[in-house]
Design goal:
The chain has 244 residues and is α+β, with helices and mostly antiparallel strands. The chain is 27% helix and 36% strand. It has two domains: 15-137, no CATH class; 140-243. 28% of the residues are buried.
């Protein structure tokens, strides 16, 4: 079989998770959040004491190039396994610019990372108590392969795949479709999010799936369920529109 071409590109992922403060191992008077359930759609998860996704809240928006240059230098300096991305979190109509850190082996690295950014003129948002649901949008780099037309596999996290959809969805519609699909599956254990993958001919809207079942058959099955459910909803919307 001919090897698949690796695609390196940019885009974004949007998801909703419950967020709370990290109270220890942070610089004084800074807002650092984490999600204990990074993939809330999963019912079976491994116990892990390592940090999940860590979000450093910033006082200002910075050019992504500045954040990514600093992130690369930081990673190179420490020969680190963690990786960073810029983004924003919406909590109760307030937007927090953030740097997301993933892959930390221990919380003690957080103030080291903060110190590096602080010494390079990145200012952090002051502490405030947060225990709330947040809509998270992360601008990230993808390293993927196209398994078949319209389905991509993530090469950093092989539990993730992305399938292309023909239209832009809002979060409420994704939640509605996912709830309906889960009710009709023998194995409903997967997490879904929205995404955009930038390609040469333009952005592709995708649904991101995180699933411990990494088979192509599983990816094909879930894509089929979503596309059928979306087609049905669009048909119902058109019928309601024509009836009024």
């Amino acid at each position: 079989m001919e090897p698949k071409q690796v695609i390196e590109t940019t885009g974004c992922i949007t998801k909703v998770e419950n967020l709370s403060n990290i109270e220890f191992h942070t610089l004084d008077d800074t807002l650092v959040l984490e999600s204990k359930q990074a993939f809330p759609g999963l019912t079976h998860r491994q116990n892990d004491d390592r940090p999940g996704a860590v979000y450093l809240a910033l006082l200002f928006r910075y050019f992504p190039e500045k954040i990514y240059r600093l992130a690369k230098n930081l990673k190179d300096n420490y020969n680190a396994d963690w990786w960073s991305a810029s983004g924003e979190i919406l909590i109760k109509n307030k937007i927090y610019p953030i740097i997301r850190i993933k892959g930390l082996s221990k919380y003690e690295y957080i103030p080291v990372i903060q110190d590096y950014y602080k010494n390079n003129d990145i200012k952090f948002m002051p502490y405030k108590l947060i225990r709330a649901e947040g809509k998270i949008k992360v601008y990230k780099h993808f390293r993927i392969i196209e398994l078949i037309e319209g389905i991509y596999r993530d090469l950093y996290e092989p539990e993730k795949f992305y399938f292309v959809i023909s239209e832009q969805l809002n979060w409420n519609m994704l939640v509605y479709l996912t709830r309906h699909i889960r009710s009709n599956l023998e194995n409903p254990d997967f997490d879904a999010a929205l995404g955009v993958i930038n390609r040469f001919n333009g952005p592709e809207d995708v649904i991101r799936i995180f699933d411990h079942d990494k088979t192509l058959d599983r990816a094909l099955s879930l894509r089929s369920h979503y596309l059928k459910a979306l087609k049905k909803e669009n048909l119902l919307i058109r019928q309601k529109g024509s009836a009024t």
